[in-house]
Amino acid sequence: MKDTALDPTTATATPSASLTEHATSSTTPTERAADYAIYKPNSRGNGGVLRFSLNPAKAALFVEAAAQCGDKQFDWDNKIIMKWGLSDVGSVLATLQARQPQAKLFHQTDKANSAFDLTLRDDPERAPYALSISRQDTADKSLRKVAIPLTHAEAAVLEAALRVAVGRLIGW
Predict the structure, then answer these.
(1) Does 160 reside within a domain?
(2) Which candidate among 32, 63, 71, 80 keeps its CA 20 to 30 Å from the CA of 18?
(3) What is the CATH number of the domain that holds 128?
């Protein structure tokens, strides 16, 4: 399924309705938890999108990424998915809070290896954060990767969302 951003011309983060219902103790059956998506299409066609979804029932935050596959369209059929626990969220938060220069996450399963990297950059000519996520399938060694820059504003919203996620995952 190919998906377009709500407002891809702005190339900024937008909240989006979840494709699947995320039930929590504080939602009614008709409510859905909102995902946080950061859309970054570009004129070169090598942009991407990352979507963060909280799932308290699984005590996890799911990160999905899709590469740009056309003019402001994203390849959700070949998306990358990572499931984060509290330690993963903590590492990313520490980087967003400038307590460490980089968060590197690596998850290995029988089916694939997934990696997430968030780096704080010190180049005033570039976005302050570089973010990448990749997945290599074990069977055929195929590699999928999405890399996007993050502005200070996008990083601030992501930090705020992750801080709320920690409280909800702990149950506080």
Answers:
(1) yes
(2) 71
(3) 2.30.31.10
